[in-house]
Amino acid sequence: MIAPTERARVSVTHGRHLRVRTLQGEEIAARSAQRNLHIVCGDWVRVTYDRQHAELRVLAVEPRSTALYRSNARGGGELIAANVSLLLVVFAPVPQPDLFVVDRYLCAARSAGLDAQILLNKCELADEALREELAVFAAAGYRCLELSSHAGIGIQTLREALVGQTAMLVGQSGTGKSSLLRVLVPGADAAVGSLARDQTGRHTTTATHLYPLPRDAELLDSPGVRDFAPAVEQLPHDTLGFVEVETLGAACRFTDCLHLQEPDCAVRAALGTQLAARRYESYRRLRRLYQRLSRAQT
């Protein structure tokens, strides 16, 4: 029997229906005691046993150390995970990788105060062009890892990177996140799907799950996406979370430079040398999205 009130960790959410892991390691179904209590995977909560309904109830959410948000179509921020320390952004040669989605996850991580690492899965299928893109991320200061859940490449290196971390797997559908999860968490209840005929990949995970790992580590597996927009409220207005823009922008003539057409812009001056053209185009696209979502809020 659980104590009158106890601390627990949210391991999965389905609306008001949750699963929590108690301090004793027991996974128990639970429900929010209040309709306005916003709970996400990774939250630490206070729970109690409701004798009248014979179920576990969540009474309160503890303060979050970090919070990862995305934007909805109206420009509002939607909380998707809490208390994460490391974002693992996965992409692969198949399906066709959308590196702009990778960039946006990296911006969201930086804006939320999370470390980020880029995982090139299915690396045995990668060509030189894709490895050149990986080198661009590495030059910007991101940790990058080539790996393959199928061939067993890079898995031990990834395990070492997870020690002491609460990490979250994110990325496009079909990149092999569920297959990676099964390697890292044997017996995890994750469906491993085949790619759709149009090579875009189909969803195999429908909710974010939190799994315990050895050596004081945890892993959140999230649904694959077609697109991703960081939350407007979290993005820094001047850099949008791009590390190169943050570094180079300090030398711009104007402190409010948006790095689009302003004179004496150090960011645009570094194009082709310290700033890759594709990354700058990604910044421009996110700037337009940022402006559109900001207007949608009004």
Q: Keyphrases for this structure?
A:
single chain; 298 residues; alpha/beta; 7 helices; 13 strands; globular
The secondary-structure element order is EEEEEEEEHEHEHEHEEHHH
The parts where pLDDT drops under 50 for at least 5 residues are: 190-204
Strand order of the largest sheet: 10-9-8-11-13-12
Largest sheet, in brief, is: 6 strands, mixed
**Beta-strand proportion:** 25-35%
What best-fitting shape do the alpha-carbon axes yield?
globular
Category from helices, strands and their pairing: alpha/beta
**CA radius of gyration:** 20 Å
Note the total helix count: 7
The span between the termini is 49 Å
Proportion of helical residues? 10-25%
Give the total of beta strands.
13
Descriptive account of the structure:
A hairpin with a 4-residue loop joins strand 2 (17-22) and strand 3 (27-32). Residues 190-204 have low confidence and may be disordered. With 298 residues, the chain is of the alpha/beta class. The protein is built from seven helices and 13 strands. It is globular. Strands 10-9-8-11-13-12 form a six-stranded mixed β-sheet, sandwiched between helices. Strands 1-2-3-5-4 form a five-stranded mixed beta barrel. Strands 6-7 form a two-stranded antiparallel sheet.
